[in-house]
């Protein structure tokens, strides 16, 4: 039986933003914002998503990645018990839950760091952080220096080569699995995490929970260095993310097809997305609003594990500024947003259903069938079946004759279940694609 994550459709939530939590954590007691989040579970299910990536959720000072306590849910969201109940409710609706794991660094209010501030060389935690040096002071006014993530001294880097740190983090993961019932982790800054640490994490979590999923945030590099049998199950496919919007803005499907071929060896395992909490909304990146339709069709039919970022199912916009990412992480009322349900919401739900019901889209072999600047068709081949996906980024209809790579007589339209099947004649499927649209067909060997 396939692991759940190989056939998952993810929904992605940045909870501090979605729930309108205070920007800085000065709370004396825990809030009750998970009560509001519970209302989103039926929406996530009805959209067709079978998994949720939510984070960060660790107790933190500000944006969530400046952790104070790795075993406490951020009090701006609620209590550990609130979160456990939320996870259990997700499970009852058939939704797995993965959380952000911020293991590269902590905030300055993390107990180990504060102990170094207080006790200096006498602190038993002086080797818990990288580059601690009592011969100079940090830009933050500390009497010692240390290595910080990308020079942000509010984020001191943990020393993952220290066995005590590794053991603490492994125990923390076990706590989140045993106590809060999570199903996976998204490793923040996986591109700079210690490889030996990630290998140990893979080995240890395999015995903690069956089919526990490890996905890493990797922007640049050869993804196969991280995605393999020893380390991570998946990483973020930023290459495809970039190609999806620029390939449409430039009317250049060659860029997308080239990316898919380049990543073919690991593509099915990669976490694919159109936008997230660090990237401008896809509706703000596309020059042609109608290109949302072929973009999402490609997201759900190309190799990968597709993800929808909260709010984008309604086509909302949002762009970061030099000073802030807040526009990417807005507070939303589900009741208000449901009034905005329209064609793009329905399109995503239909695509999620197609992805769920057709195993060719989970592990089928990719085969390019037709490619021009403005039209692109490919197959996802199973043993005796194929899903054929074809898209058009032109403002005019496109009549195509697409080669079919195995003997089939009929093609069933999956995006329009009421449409009659189309005959395959002389090994080719003739179809007219709508402007800024596409079609998805199921074919079986004759």
UniProtKB/TrEMBL annotation:
InterPro entries: Alpha_amylase (IPR006046), GH (IPR017853), GH13_cat_dom (IPR006047), Glyco_hydro_b (IPR013780)
Catalyses which reaction(s): Endohydrolysis of (1->4)-alpha-D-glucosidic linkages in polysaccharides containing three or more (1->4)-alpha-linked D-glucose units
UniProt xrefs under SUPFAM superfamilies: (Trans)glycosidases, Glycosyl hydrolase domain
Keywords associated with the record: Carbohydrate metabolism, Glycosidase, Hydrolase
Residue ranges of domain Glycosyl hydrolase family 13 catalytic in the record: 12-355
SMART domains from the UniProt entry: Aamy
Gene Ontology molecular function: any one: hydrolase activity
EC numbers: 3.2.1.1
Enzyme class of the recorded protein, top EC level: hydrolase
Keyword hit for Translocase: no
One Pfam family cited in the UniProt record for this chain: Alpha-amylase
Similarity field: Belongs to the glycosyl hydrolase 13 family.
Name of the protein in question: Alpha-amylase
Organism in which the protein naturally occurs: Alitiscatomonas aceti
